[in-house]
Amino acid sequence: MDSSVLSALAALAGAAIGGLTSVLTSWLTQHTQARAQWIAQENFRRQELYREFIDDAAKAYVHALQYEKADMALLVSLYAKIGRMRVLSSQKVVESADQIAQKIVNTYLAPDKSFLELSEMVNHASIDILQNFSEACRAEFQLSTTRSFRSSGA
Question: Model pTM?
């Protein structure tokens, strides 16, 4: 084979490999960025859902402590958020949210609490019905962050 043909083939092969490497690098970078953006967006959606749920649950619980007649609109909103969690969240988060809703319904069925009873609940930490839910959410976000770092190669 002529040395000029061999040189031309080597140059073409080098250019092809260089071009392919450039395309693959570009695709990999875009894929990684898109995945990171998707994960961040999913985390934001869940954070917003959990924030709204915590706000509604706190309002419903306070209402249940004060009144025996349920605020149906607030309860329906709470259960709608739990329904969204069934799609987006881990089983532990959903179970914790269900427990909160059940506690609120049970509180409506109980007699109204006096200020002295509320004080005792605060002293015994039984007033905080959101703790398990908050811990489940934190664990879910930590697991999500760990998985995203592992899969991105970081």
Answer: 0.75
